[in-house]
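Researcher: Batch entry, complex prediction.
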Amino acid sequence: MNFFSKLYYKLRKMWKAIQLYLVIAGPGIVVMVADNDAGGITTYAATGAKYGYHLIWFLLLLIPVAYYVQEMTVRLGAVTKRGHAEAIFDGFGAFWGWFSLVDLMLVDWLTLVTEFIGMTAALNIFGVPPWLTVTGVVLLMAIIVLNGRYWTWEKIALLFCALNLIYIPGAFMIHPSVADILKQGLIPNFAGGFNAQLFFFLMANIGTTIAPWMLFFQQSAVVDKGMQEKDIPWGKFDTLLGSALTVVVAIFIVIVTGTILNGVDIESAGQAAEQLMKTDRYVGTFMAIGLFDAGLLGAICISLASSWAFGEIFGWAHSLNQNIKQAPGFYASDFFTLITSGLVVLIPGAPLVLITLFVQVIAVTLLPAALVFLILLLNDRQAMGDYCNNTWQNVIGGFIVVTIVLLSSLYGISVMFPNLFQ
Amino acid sequence: MRASLKRLFRKIGEINQRYREPRIHMSRGVRAALLFLRVYLLFLVCLMAYKFVLLLS
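Model: Structure tokens for the complex:
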């Protein structure tokens, strides 16, 4: 009897913990899964096609990288109740504040264009014309965002996150060799030796793991959700789960393209989906649906990251808990970025490839600054109190930040000067 | 239009005034980090300008 009462007590406690987590879950998972946006899917598809399963171990290393960076935004948001843009303005003055805000606006807008490129390419496979995709996406976003409740928006976003897992059944359908995946993928190795091309792929994978908008988005989402200091452990768990999920999805994309398209040069995820269609119609369809979902999720989060940042600085009402009448500036900014970036894709002959490359270069100007500010803000004992970074957090965070800054800078430079590392 | 621009500039002025002084204590480490960022960004801007010139020529 005593055993059963103890078991009942433990199960009840566990169920309560799960319920509590479900209330707090959201920003971490959404930001991490949205990180697998159209550009990310292209990178992973190309990595799998080029190197097969050989870089899966490297993707696993990205779980702690993404986690340690993003968990700092959870603490900063929950303790200061300020978004990242406002924290930079307040902490480092107007010069660095404007630099970050304007750069964020530019990077977000350009990234949104790439999300629309991905979404139109994905639906084009099913015969949907680009104008219809852009119109449909903007209308869908309006329905999601304008409901006037953060909770509803978050749950819809989580639903799209679940759809991102479509690559997992897709991978099972092609029956890859588990023994090969374990043998080639989990033992660190550099297929074909460490050369310039491999280095480029490693940099591209790191570059897609941490993007500037993610820092701004998660911190603002934590504030908008109303998370408190006591919620930080669950917020961290949410971020860890999100980091693991995003890498798992990336690994399954690598498995799909590594199995079917091994040795094929992939330039876009749309092209990968088309190639997959020729081999297996269902897997190709899954790839296209996943690409559309990735672009949509990216667009939802990126447009909000900019609007939150502008709202914080210009003093507009900037919460998803407010309706369009209460927060007109916030929603106007959101839809302005969405509609203008969507229209670019519809311009005949628009330099879309150049825009895609330009995003990576501009992101390199913002990412180091945002990461350095993050570490400095987390060391501000006056604002952070007990949630200030300890020595180990600084060592780990500092190492990750230095590595990301170095590699993403090299990636940006290699995009500008493609022959530099050959 | 003119009135909107005027309001925008006034707002920007207010923001500049509000955040004129950085709140974070400018220790030697913070100063070094900010200096690194300035040098880094200058380097990137120079690289981009060089690339732009290359594209034009």
